[in-house]
Structure formats: structure tokens, C-alpha cells
Specification:
The complex is a heterodimer of chains A (114) and B (112). Helices cover 0% and strands 53% of the residues of chain A. Chain A has 114 residues and is mostly beta strands. Helix content of chain B is 0%, strand content 50%. In chain B, the strands form two sheets. In chain B, strands 2, 4, 5, 6, 9, 10 and 11 form a seven-stranded mixed beta sheet that branches. Chain B has a four-stranded antiparallel beta sheet with strand order 1-3-8-7, with no helix packed on it. In chain B, a hairpin with a 5-residue loop joins strand 4 and strand 5 (43-51). The interface between A and B is medium-sized, with 23 and 27 residues.
Chain lengths: 114, 112
């Protein structure tokens, strides 16, 4: 079974500084990987996805992530944090090559200081 | 305007009652999903459906039931057998395998 580990449960950054959210996955095949963002009491919104094309994936709102197969990582970054980036972020991996299910990480809460 | 809708946004239930949460999508997606979210635990899969008239149990199906009579609709019933139903429930849909899931705004269920 596939699984995903978000290495930080909480990240705090100052506005205008870089954001790094770390994600490692385990997979016996080449997975699809996603990052979602969730603002309080809202549904999840897709930030970006990796599906075996370019290893550096650009998403919405200035976020990007790099797929590193050798390190089984899919870390999310943003060069300059905004106050509106304060939210919870989920790293997600497809479960298998023939299954519709996704496996969600436990989430990382981002706080942005003024 | 395409998307997923969930209703109601807030739902209160007395112990021993069954309640049904609505999920509708107009994205023409084949697959639909129900998740439960508790603080600090991420999302856990309750049920999913890959096609009309077919659905499978997820990781925490006990105390829940679903139906998929129409492509657009995937209602979730929280039965009295669910011992701890207070949670935030999220519905999602996807075009198919390896595609991203689109989420509804969620329903917060509270048992009084």
C-alpha cells in the first residue's frame, strides 16, 4: 500500500519569506502526487499535481513542488509567503496503479506572521 | 458554473437518529468519494464509487451507508450505528484514475 508522510505538523513563517513544506511518500510504482490547500471550514483546493511529466511542477498562487524519485520526496515551496497562505496543506498520493483511491498525509498547518 | 455542492453546511443530530448528507456534482465525473475529517487526522475515506450503481467501502465505512443511483449524486447516510459521528464531512469527485479530486465545501455534523 502507498503512504505519505508530512514531516512537519506546523510551520510558521514571516510574511515575505520562503515557505517549505516537506512530504515523503512510499510507493511500489510511479505514483501520481498532489498538494491541496484547505482554509478553515472549507473544502480542499488543488494547488498542483505531478503525473510523470516534468519533475518540477508549478501550481497556483506561486507554489511549486519538485518530484525526487531517488529521495521519494515531493516538497512544496513558495519563494515569498503572503498572509493569505495561512491554511492547512495536504500532500496526497495515488494508492496503486489500478485504484481510484488517494492516500492523504496528516496535513501541515501554516502560520504567517506579519 | 461547474462544481460540487454539499448540503447542508451545518447539521445537528440527536443521538440515535440517522441523517443524510447531500453531494451533487455537475462536472460529469464518474468517480465520487466521501471523506471524514477530524482535527489533526487528515482525511479518511468512508466510501467511494467509480461508476453509477456501484460503490466500495473505504477505510472507515462502519456506521455509514451510500447510494449511487445517478451519476451526479452520491448521498451519505450517517446511521445510529456510527458511535462518534461528530466531524467535518467532505465529498469529492474525479474524472477517473490518476486524476485530481475536486472537493465540495463540506458539511459539519454535530451530534447533540
Amino acid at each position: 500500500a502507498q503512504s505519505v508522510t508530512q514531516l512537519d505538523s506546523h510551520v510558521s513563517v514571516s510574511e515575505g519569506t520562503p515557505v517549505l513544506l516537506r512530504c515523503n511518500y512510499s510507493s511500489s510504482y510511479s505514483p501520481s502526487l498532489f498538494w491541496y490547500v484547505q482554509h478553515p471550514n472549507k473544502g480542499l483546493q488543488l494547488l498542483l499535481k505531478y503525473t510523470s511529466a516534468a519533475t518540477l511542477v508549478k501550481g497556483i498562487n506561486g507554489f511549486e513542488a519538485e518530484f525526487k524519485k531517488s529521495e521519494t520526496s515531493f516538497h512544496l515551496t513558495k519563494p515569498s509567503a503572503h498572509m493569505s497562505d495561512a491554511a492547512e496543506y495536504f500532500c496526497v498520493v495515488s494508492v496503486s496503479s489500478n485504484d481510484y483511491k488517494l492516500s492523504f498525509g496528516a496535513g501541515t498547518t501554516v502560520t504567517v506572521r506579519a | 458554473d461547474g462544481g460540487i455542492t454539499q448540503s447542508p453546511k451545518y447539521l445537528f443530530r440527536k443521538e440515535g437518529q440517522n441523517v443524510t448528507l447531500s453531494c451533487e456534482q455537475n462536472l460529469n465525473h464518474d468517480a465520487m468519494y466521501w471523506y471524514r475529517q477530524d482535527p489533526g487526522q487528515g482525511l479518511r475515506l468512508i466510501y467511494y464509487s467509480q461508476i453509477v450503481n456501484d460503490f466500495q467501502k473505504g477505510d472507515i465505512a462502519e456506521g455509514y451507508s451510500v447510494s449511487r443511483e445517478k451519476k451526479e449524486s452520491f448521498p451519505l447516510t450517517v446511521t445510529s450505528a456510527q458511535k462518534n459521528p461528530t466531524a467535518f464531512y467532505l465529498c469529492a469527485s474525479a474524472r477517473g484514475m490518476f486524476n485530481e479530486q475536486f472537493f465540495g465545501p463540506g458539511t459539519r455534523l454535530t451530534v447533540l
